[in-house]
Design goal:
- By secondary structure, this protein is α/β, with parallel strands linked by helices.
- The chain folds into two domains: about 50 residues; about 180 residues, Vaccinia Virus protein VP39 (Rossmann fold), CATH 3.40.50.150.
- Helix content is about 35%, strand content about 20%.
- The strands form two sheets. The chain has a seven-stranded mixed sheet.
- It is globular.
- About 35% of the residues are buried.
- One of its GO terms (molecular function) is rRNA (guanine-N2-)-methyltransferase activity.
- This is SAM-dependent methyltransferase.
Length: about 260
């Protein structure tokens, strides 16, 4: 379970925002009287969303806040003519892209920039904590950042991908994309994403979910996984994009 609080010595607007989010998302509000660590221990919380100048997630393992991070670098590389491993797998004439696993938002942001102003990016995030951090992070950065048009095209929804896919019409989205949390994290991530990983969703792909994604996708389904993942041997992929020395691979199913 998560809760929400404010920074120490909060402004009235910080308190108002925290209470508003607590009511909107049905999570408990805790007046800031002690450290986040003590509040989490006493109330058996997995994490606390903290309201200040920006929202961030606090867990016993660290902090996580929404930022453009690697997405900004990838967009810059695309602008300079470099090839992005995900974007190169997106076929021509794609307008709708469903990112079933928003997470930190990097892929949604990059694809929005790659596809341009006529695109529609639908992003799903099951974790309530990561959804709130992402939703308010996008809103804040969109107010001032040069990437505001790219961010405003992202429709972020607090929903799990299986529920969403079951409701979607057949062949209603050009590309369906999955980047589920790895059971074995990349080594470089272990010490930098623990707060994020603590509140992330670990739902795995099943045949039923893949069948639904194939039904919904008009052009293709793309799945990002570790190269040694059993999913690449278990299901019938059109092809698998691997690169020597890279810790991830992309499986493509043509629909």
């Amino acid at each position: 379970m998560i809760g929400i609080t404010t920074i120490p010595k909060p402004a009235e607007q910080n308190i108002a925002q925290a209470r508003e989010i607590a009511e909107k998302f049905s999570i408990p509000f805790f007046e800031r009287k002690e450290s986040c660590k003590k509040c989490m221990e006493e109330n058996n919380l997995d994490g606390l969303i903290v309201c200040g100048k920006e929202l961030f997630l606090k867990t016993k393992d660290g902090e996580y806040k929404f930022h453009l991070g690697m997405a900004k670098l990838r967009l810059l590389q695309l602008k300079r003519g470099s090839v992005d491993r995900l974007c190169k797998l997106i076929p021509e004439s794609v307008n709708t892209f469903l990112d079933c696993t928003f997470g930190q938002g990097n892929d949604s942001i990059v694809v929005s920039g790659f596809l341009g102003e006529k695109s529609r990016i639908i992003s799903l995030e099951k974790s309530k904590a990561l959804y709130i951090i992402g939703k308010y992070g996008i809103k804040k950065i969109s107010e001032t950042d040069e990437y505001q048009d790219i961010l405003k095209r992202i429709e972020l929804k607090n929903e799990d991908f299986f529920t969403y896919l079951k409701k979607a019409e057949s062949k209603s989205i050009d590309v369906v994309y999955f980047d589920t949390m790895f059971k074995h994290p990349v080594k470089s991530e272990k010490n930098h994403r623990e707060a994020f990983r603590k509140c992330a969703c670990y739902d795995k792909l099943t045949k039923e979910i893949l069948d639904e994604s194939i039904r919904v996708a008009k052009k293709r389904v793309i799945i990002k996984e570790r190269p040694f993942s059993i999913i690449f041997r278990k299901y019938n992929f059109s092809y698998i994009d691997t690169k020597k020395g890279q810790s991830v691979a992309y499986g493509v199913i043509e629909t």
